[in-house]
Every structure is written in C-alpha cells, then in structure tokens.
Amino acid sequence: MLFQAALPIARRPLHEEVADRIRELITEGVIAPGARLNERVLSEQLKVSRTPLREAFKVLAAERLIELHPNRGASVAVLSLSDVDHLFEVMAALEGLSGELAAQRRTDAELDEIQALHFEMLAAHARRDLPAYYRLNRAIHETINRCARNPVLAETYDSVNLRIQNLRFRSNFNREKWDSAVVEHTAMVDALIRSDGPALRALLEQHLRHKRDAVLEELRA
After folding, report:
1. How far apart are CA 57 and CA 52, in angstroms?
2. Which of 26, 100, 143, 166 could form a disulfide with 197 if both were Cys (CB 3.0 to 4.6 A apart)?
3. CATH-assigned architecture of domain 14-76
4. How far is CA 1 from the centre of its chain?
5. What is the tens place of the pLDDT at every residue in 176-209?
6. CA dist list (Å): 184 to 111, 136, 137, 194
7. Is 119 exposed, middle or buried (0-12, 13-18, 19+ CB in 10 A)?
8. pTM listed for this prediction
9. DSSP H helical segments within the chain, as ranges?
C-alpha cells in the first residue's frame, strides 16, 4: 500500500516554550516588575538548561517585557506612570478599532466561539479564579482582534498588548472593579451579536480607560 508523504509534525523550539512560561509568570505577577531573573533558579524551576533560557530572554527583551543588562543578567521591565498612561491610551484605540471592524466582519462561528469563551469566563469569575478568568478574558479580546481581519492592526495590537498584560491582570485585584469589568464584557458581547460596530468600539475604549484608571490608582497607592 502506498502512502502520500506525510507533512512534518510542527515542533516549537524549546526557547519559545520557555519564553511562554516566563511571560505567564510575569503576567500573573509571580515575577514582579523590576525583579532580577536568576538563571540558575529559573533553569531548575523550568527544568531546562541555560542555553534555551538565554534565548528566551532575547525573545522577551525584544518584546520589551524584560531588560538585558551587560554582565548583570536580566530583570523584568518597569513602567513609569506616564508609560502606563500612554500604553493604555494607544491600546484603547486599537481595541476600539478591532471591535468596530469585528462587528462588521465576524462570522457566526466566531461569534459562537466568543460567546462560549464569555460563558466560561463568567464561570471563572463566579468561583473567583482570577488566572483562569484572565486567560479566557485575554482570549476574547484576541479573538475580537482576529475577527477584524487586518494583519497590520493585529501586529500592532499584539506588540502593545504584550507590554501591559501584567497591568491588565492586576486591574482585577479590586473586586468591585473586577465585577464592573464583567458587566462591561456582557455589553460587548451583546453589541457584537447585534453587529453594532460603533457601540462595540465605544464600549471597548471605555473598558480600557477603566482598566487604565484602576491600574494607575493602584500604582499611585
């Protein structure tokens, strides 16, 4: 029996998987802003050698999540209050544009996917599981961005969004603000169902402004 040549199985480089794990630790605040990244400790915790770890550092430095210091290792990047304000200002515009385009261009299958993610997110919120909630929340925003079908927008969105993941995660530390964010998400899904682009744009921009305000309030405190 003859078989067609099978396509090769895609395998991700180890350093990319290591970068994903460190990125997650930074997002969830396990590794705090300004913290030094100890190669020996991270190698032991992640069970990898220092070679893929150093390659992962280069990836994260290119994303501006960490800073490399000659002869002094690496540390998690620290954002000033003005950095936070400026990043969220740009992110609000990118989220708003993503939403307006997504409302026009999304498919029924994509809408079903977002609704399913939303219901899972509500369940995570109900049991106060912030890490699970945040992963679902992030998936919703990224899926809306994907529905916009604009590769230039997607590239810019991803670049800015990576730098504020920890801040978006921290914006839910206040229970009242977390509850308000969930209400805002329900309104967003309703606007997407109605294909109301202007309404979804306004909701997303407001949502990001509220996130910014929550983060700045915490940082100033």
Report:
1. 9
2. 100
3. Orthogonal Bundle (1.10)
4. 48
5. 999 999 999 999 999 999 999 999 999 999 999 9
6. 17, 15, 12, 16
7. exposed
8. 0.89
9. 14-27, 39-46, 50-62, 81-105, 108-126, 130-147, 151-163, 165-170, 175-193, 197-220
